[in-house]
Amino acid sequence: MTQRYAKTPEAVAALTREQHDITQNNGTERPFRNEFWDHKEDGLYVDVVSGEPLFASTHKYDSQSGWPSFVRPIEDSHVVEIEDRSHGMVRTEVRSKHGDSHLGHVFPDGPGETGQRYCINSAALRFVPVADLEKEGYGDYKDLFEED
Asked: Hey, what domains does the chain have and what are their CATH numbers?
């Protein structure tokens, strides 16, 4: 399956005001008042602009930060990490590769072998439940949710 991911004027025009502010203007949503901070359903989180698959529920954990947090992206090639010196601090911004959407930041205080916490804005994501992966073109990622 070959799927193309791209930022289109139509996709940007369809964003809500909050989605636009976060993905296009590097905004940040409020903690504990966003759609996915405590979401527990199995599936993929994809870029709301381009549709590229970014994170899996199997890599999500409760960081108690109020934002959805993941130990790693599904594919490193779908995210870009950029030094961010805004707000008087040095952080690492996370953007989607093809959609160029601001997603959030990655911090070196996560659990497990990666030690990473990808702290992501819910408004930058669209959730695709496991049951819908095939019909939405993400069938190649079903194995992330199959139990051994």
From this structure: 9-135 (2.170.150.20)
By CB atoms closer than 10 A (0-12, 13-18, 19+), residue 28 is middle
Q: Which of 49, 119, 128, 144 is catalytic?
A: 119
Residue partners of 6: CB distance under 8 A and separation at least 6: 50, 98, 99
pLDDT tens digits, 61-90: 999 999 999 999 999 999 999 999 988 888
Let me know if 102 is a catalytic residue: no
Q: d(Cα 120, Cα 110) in Å, to the nearest integer?
A: 13
0.85 exceeded by pTM: yes
